[in-house]
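Worked Example 4.2. Consider the chain below.
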Amino acid sequence: MPLSTSKFQNLVSRAEEGDSDAQYSLAELYCRGDGVPRNYVEAEKWYLLSAKQGHPGAQYGLGVLYLKHLGNRAEGTRLLTLAGERGDSDACYALATTLSQASGQGRDPVAAYAWFCLVEAYDNGPDCGKEISKLESELSVEQILGAQLRAREAFRPAIACSAADKAEAAARSANEEANAELERRHEAERAEDTALGPLLPGESRVRRRMRVDLSKAVSPD
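Applying the procedure from the previous section yields the following structure tokens:
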């Protein structure tokens, strides 16, 4: 949903004051054309300002912008590599797909395989089993083993553990919310039973409500 005018102006003010989160959010809006006309120059401007302050997503966003939209493959690859080396699985995936799908000298299936292995290891990115299998069909055993060694050397276990912890926490939170919702539903049903009386044999709750409503409608005041 697009931001209201007041919220957008507030975001711009925060970004101009140096808020890196606001700068990143503004860059994202301009990059996607979300509520504002798509503008890659403005997106680059705010990504750069945010990235200089160390925002974790800005370097990745800027790398993708250069790679896909502004035609600066070298800088885009450099930025995504830096982000990937820090354990950003989205950057690893972007690099892997770029290196595997490029043509000519830009294609590097061995490096692509290594980046796909890292995405798989961090376990918080897209499923890339098909891409890995496809690359294995064209690489030699020596190339595959070399790429796996590169991935192992670049792998950061702490990042993977952190991602796993976050995934576990998210699953636990979702389970707790589901249980809470179930309890709310049961409480509502108990309240309905108290108000409408017991169900007749084979009667659904909907039919009971209809029966009670009909009874009220035809009963004399």
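DSSP finds eleven helices and no strands in the chain. The radius of gyration is 27 Å. Compare this with Example 4.1 before moving on.
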